[in-house]
Amino acid sequence: MSVLQLDKLVKRYDSVPVLHGIDLTINQGEFLVLIGPSGCGKSTLLRMLAGLEDITSGSLTLDGKEINDVPSQHRDFSMVFQSYALYPHLTVYENIAFGLKIRKADQAHIDKMINWAADILKLTPLLDRTPKQLSGGQCQRVAMGRALVREPKLFLFDEPLSNLDAKLRIQMRAEMKTLHLKLKTTTVYVTHDQVEAMTLADRIVVMNDGIIEQIGSPLELYDNPINLFVAGFLGAPAISFIRGIVQLQGAQLGVAVPSSADNEQGAFIELPDASSVVVGQELVLGIRPEFFQLEDAAQHNHKQKVTVKFVEAMGAETYIHGLMCGQDIIAKTNLRLAYQPGQVIEVGVDLSALHVFDAKSGLKLAN
Ligand code: ADP
Ligand code: MG
User: Fold this and answer.
1) φ/ψ (deg, to 5) at 230
2) How far does the centroid of ligand 1 lie from the alpha carbon of residue 52, in Å?
3) What is the pLDDT of residue 367?
4) What is the strand order of the sheet 344-349 is part of?
5) Domain layout of the chain by residue ranges
6) pLDDT tens for residues 187-221?
7) Class for domain 240-358, per CATH?
8) What 8-state DSSP symbol labels residue 287?
9) pLDDT tens-place string over residues 231-288
10) The pLDDT of residue 111
């Protein structure tokens, strides 16, 4: 069931267009993540949902009723921002209670809700402290508590974890997920962190420059990005892009990758399915890091020469940064390979996992 429906939502500041007509359905109970580079319009869109920004044109519908002009305080949404904006002179208890007091909830209800939220967010021992006696992560949980006790129809989060250090961010990410599994409140969550998007979202909306590039589950987007932008945006380490031109060698259509200082022959990469390409077409091949094969490379059907630039040993995984015909690649392996910079290695490529894009349009071809 849909909760919020966005139809051709447009935002202009004076005459400057920021959102170009956003169509999106947000379903009951889902965790929807908006992701995109800085400045693409994520916060603006979230603020329009919250009623904190006017809608220039288009319609926003909640449970079948247009709410374009319904003021923020009547929308029954709770928003948590990147900066927690806690009241410094109020205790944790008072900060969380603030919204309920304004709405003149009775004291018994306030106590009940605060005990419930404090329990979920592990804030019970901290209720008498003031914000300056709390860590960043604790402040963030207080901001969450304030949103939670209102029992809103919708949570709106704008990069709520981006002020936290890396370790805490990962911990809070897990807590957000647990909380959502428990409460099932419909959530729209803005981030520019693709790991957060992949791990939290039921569906991800990839935005770029005021438009939606693609919507899908994390793995749908990872496995089947519709264009170069989405392919490059999701995935860590990033997908490698190899540019070349379609050629016929014997009876085989493939991509000829021009020669370079590190590979004077250049390369020829066969296309498993060449039904949607023509000779002479410029292509970009996308290879995810796990589809480079470093184990027994000589055994693999398709091999390429790679010049190692440097190696990142993460413990469980090792990332090899290198050049293939002068083009940057990143390969990932579970092996602990101690390659030296400058070393030339042979790497298998799993051609069945190639993403093939038209270089001019950036669109993914049907392989
Ligand atoms: P994001 O959250 O994706 O980083 P924003 O929604 O904050 O992006 O901003 C999108 C674009 O709108 C940016 O180019 C920004 O400069 C512009 N913008 C945001 N707020 C205003 C404003 N109040 N007046 C004019 N331009 C704005
Ligand atoms: Mg923003």
Assistant:
1) -65, -40
2) 13
3) 54
4) 292-293, 344-349, 303-313, 318-324, 327-333
5) 2-233, 240-358
6) 999 999 999 999 999 999 999 999 999 999 999 99
7) mainly beta
8) E
9) 999 999 999 999 999 999 998 999 999 999 988 899 999 998 888 999 999 999 999 9
10) 95
Nearest CA to ligand 1 atom 1: 39
Residue whose CB lies within 8 A of the most ligand 1 atoms, among 10, 13, 206, 208, for a mutation test:
13
Query: What does the block give as tokens for 325?
Result: 């015909």
Ligand 1 contacts CB of residue 38 (under 6 A): yes
Element (H, E) at 142: helix 136-148
How many H helices and E strands in the chain?
8, 20
Fold match flag (2-233 vs 240-358): no
∠ at Cα 186 (146, 65), nearest 5°? 105
Determine the CATH number of domain 2-233. 3.40.50.300
140 lines ligand 1 (CB under 6 A): no
What pLDDT, on the 0 to 100 scale, is given for residue 171?
Answer: 84
CB of 42 shorter than 6 A to ligand 1: yes
- The band of 36, judged by pLDDT with boundaries at 50, 70 and 90, is very high
* CA of 39, nearest ligand number: 1
